[in-house]
Amino acid sequence: MSFKDLVRNSEEVLELINASERCLDVMNYTEHGLRHAMYVARVTEKILKKLGFDDYTAELGFIAGYMHDTGNSVNRNFHGHVSAVYAYYVLKELGMPLKDVNTVTAAIGNHEEETGTPVNAVSAALIIADKSDAHRTRVTQKYDPNEIHDRVNHAIKKNAVYINPEKRTISSRIYMNGTSSVMEYFEIYLSRINMSEKAAHLLGCTFKLYINDVLINSPKAVKGEKSVTEKGDQSLE
Length: 237
Ligand SMILES: [Fe+2]
Ligand SMILES: [Fe+2]
Known about the structure:
By secondary structure, this protein is α+β, with helices and mostly antiparallel strands. It has helices spanning 3-8, 11-26, 34-50, 55-67, 79-93, 98-109, 121-131, 148-155, 182-202; strands spanning 156-164, 169-176, 206-211, 214-215. The radius of gyration is 19 Å and the shape is globular.
């Protein structure tokens, strides 16, 4: 059995994911349970595969994605660090070579924007996958219209990550309705977008964010119109 299947079938890891969800649910956080774990696992794996990494690296990506939030079962603060320690012991016990365990733990321990930096390909793919998971299904049953996270997530009807290996672009496409706004989206997600840009850079790619089919983070000069800063001129006067 592959390490991916061993982790996926582990009752212990599943309980850590469910325990994390129970804790964050009490704090009225957005959904962080099995759905989020599986979404991040699959998207991390897909990013690595599409960019030409070997199957085993993609498998490490799946595992990192699946286990990245288990530390929320202890505390929200530094949960990435705790998740990494959990993964270390689980993967070592399953017989994974230590070098690969360390790839996974470095990725997990660096996935939060407050303390993390993309440090390897698995880490970079995990960051992009995790930060892309904004969707109305993540709003718990206790939807609070006065809470910005609930409003923004509830407004997102659809999200998807597209990889173009030839052009080396990773595009996150989000479709929002009027429950919230692009301004509110950035109010809570700007640091996540910045981190995704850094992560894509480590993978030799450009990260593009589209909201309702409008490119948000990579402005280009309109045809025939020169950018005021094109020739090193920083003055707008
Ligand atoms: Fe997290
Ligand atoms: Fe997460």
